């Protein structure tokens, strides 16, 4: 028996029926990004494993459990990118983008890879659309990035989202808070899950990412990072909130929000939607003022977001229009000579920008008309042997079902349709 090879688990195909919706989201994003002054950057899917260990953090779930890393044929340690920020910072530094533009507004669109348990809204290859605004510490940078994210979700057809924000403070605040939290949780370590026991030792902030209900309960009464940030960070957070209010972006402060990547400092945020069940985050991001320094560059403030396109589609599929191409004209061709003529007409029409089609196989009139219907062709041109002889074809309007005769040589003059 013949065996068909299937795709990998958690790595879904995006089929033509749905690809039009993906295109719609991407087109919407590109238009909006251009309006806000963001330029596209494309980085490779593979990077050195060390890039992610150093940026996301060695003790995070992404690096510890989810990264696809392996030795390549040259015995190098490489990884499929699990996220977009670290590669962009790498590229920014490698190509001295800071020297060309003091404030860099960048965006990216592409697949990310994480070896997680596949379920609704969680894949192993998934797609992100994101931005990175590098070079500004201003509250307006945070607010612009958040605003752009919310506008893009809205323009893509996703309404009723919830925006949650928090502030992690600067590196010093984070370090000091880690001591406070570690101490506060000491007596309850036994009640934490196995992972959180490790996190308590190695990377205590990560306990906030735990999805385990009993850990969440313990965290409910644990100290909150916003109560332990320095006056400068407090002031910045207030200014971000003010800027958001000034442009009518609704948010709530969630003191438990920390995000799963170590590089975040200052403002962090997440957008959730009720349609998404337990994987309810559709977009997230924050400030990472220390990352560029950590990656070998000068200290440079920056912030960004990433929208999970798969989840956006899951939450708003019915609201997202499809970019499937319209068919202006379908040529119904009966007989070899008609096909020969039709093939030339098709080439001329396409040269003039008309979206048109024919079947390459000889088919009956009925079957060709059925196909034209399925493609939702606006008009159909019927050419058979008689029409060829008399230099006349039948042009049928598929909407009002009217038809008229047209000279075959006039078909390319679309104003005569
Ligand atoms: P989650 O809490 O759902 O695991 P995350 O904190 O790991 O999300 P980020 O790294 O911030 O997510 O990525 C930003 C967005 O990318 C998420 O809000 C989500 O929409 C999407 N995303 C992340 N991981 C996956 C995945 N495995 N499958 C599909 N989408 C994902
Ligand atoms: Mg995750």
Instruction: Give the helix/strand class.
Output: alpha+beta
Distance between the termini: 53 Å
CATH fold-level name of the largest domain: BirA Bifunctional Protein, domain 2
Helix percentage: 25-40%
Total of DSSP H or I helical runs spanning 4+ residues: 15
Mean pLDDT: 95
Please report which band the strand proportion falls in: under 5%, 5-15%, 15-25%, 25-35%, 35-45% or over 45%. 15-25%
Per DSSP E runs of 2 or more residues, the count of β-strands stands at 16
The CATH class of the largest domain is identified as Alpha Beta
In the predicted model, the low-confidence regions spanning at least 5 consecutive residues are none
Give a short overview.
This protein has 15 helices and 16 strands. With 417 residues, it is α+β, with helices and mostly antiparallel strands.
SSE layout and pairings?
Blueprint: H1 16-36, E1 39-40, E2 46-48, H2 49-56, H3 61-66, E3 69-71, E4 77-80, H4 85-94, H5 97-100, E5 104-113, E6 125-134, H6 139-155, E7 162-167, H7 171-185, H8 194-202, H9 213-220, H10 231-246, E8 252-253, E9 265-272, E10 281-287, H11 291-294, E11 302-308, H12 309-316, E12 329-333, H13 336-351, E13 356-358, H14 365-374, E14 379-383, H15 385-390, E15 392-397, E16 403-407
Parallel strand pairs: 1-5, 7-8, 12-13, 12-14
Antiparallel strand pairs: 2-4, 3-4, 5-6, 6-11, 7-9, 9-10, 10-11, 14-15, 15-16
This protein binds adenosine-5'-triphosphate (ATP) and magnesium ion.
Residues 83, 114, 116, 121-123, 126, 128, 260, 279, 281-284, 306, 308, 310-311 line the site of adenosine-5'-triphosphate.
């Amino acid at each position: 028996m013949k065996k068909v090879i299937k795709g990998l688990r958690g790595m879904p195909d995006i089929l033509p029926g749905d690809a039009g919706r993906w295109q719609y989201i991407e087109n919407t994003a590109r238009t909006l990004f251009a309006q806000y002054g963001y330029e596209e950057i494309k980085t490779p899917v593979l990077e050195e494993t060390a890039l992610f260990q150093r940026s996301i953090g060695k003790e995070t779930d992404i690096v510890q459990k989810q990264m696809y890393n392996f030795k390549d044929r040259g015995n190098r340690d490489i990884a499929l990118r699990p996220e977009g920020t670290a590669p962009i910072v790498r590229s920014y530094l490698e190509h001295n983008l800071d020297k060309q533009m003091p404030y860099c507004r960048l965006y990216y669109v592409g697949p990310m890879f994480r070896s997680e348990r596949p379920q609704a809204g969680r894949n192993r290859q998934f797609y992100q659309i994101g931005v990175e605004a590098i070079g500004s510490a201003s509250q307006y940078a945070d607010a612009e990035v958040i605003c752009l994210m919310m506008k893009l979700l809205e323009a893509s057809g996703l309404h009723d989202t919830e925006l949650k924000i928090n502030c992690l403070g600067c590196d010093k605040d984070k370090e000091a808070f880690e001591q406070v939290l570690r101490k506060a949780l000491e007596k309850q370590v036994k009640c934490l899950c196995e992972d959180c026991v490790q996190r308590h030792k190695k990377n205590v902030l990560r306990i906030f990412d735990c999805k385990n209900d009993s850990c969440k309960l313990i965290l409910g009464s644990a100290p909150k990072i916003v109560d332990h940030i320095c006056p400068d960070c407090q002031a910045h957070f207030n200014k971000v909130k003010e800027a958001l209010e000034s442009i009518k972006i609704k948010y709530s402060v969630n003191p438990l929000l920390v995000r799963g990547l170590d590089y975040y400092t200052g403002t962090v945020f997440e957008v959730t939607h009720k349609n998404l069940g337990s994987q309810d985050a559709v977009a997230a991001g924050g400030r990472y003022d220390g990352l560029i320094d950590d990656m070998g560059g000068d200290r440079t403030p920056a912030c960004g977001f990433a929208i999970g396109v798969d989840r956006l589609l899951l939450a708003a599929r019915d609201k997202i229009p499809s970019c499937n191409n319209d068919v202006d004209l379908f040529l119904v061709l009966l007989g070899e000579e008609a096909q020969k003529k039709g093939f030339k007409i098709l080439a001329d029409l396409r040269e003039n920008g008309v979206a048109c089609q024919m079947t390459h196989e000889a088919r009956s009139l009925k079957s060709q008309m059925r196909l034209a219907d399925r493609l939702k062709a606006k008009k159909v041109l019927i050419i058979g042997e008689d029409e060829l002889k008399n230099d006349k074809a039948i042009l049928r309007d598929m909407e009002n079902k009217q038809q008229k005769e047209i000279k075959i040589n006039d078909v390319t003059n679309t104003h005569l349709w």
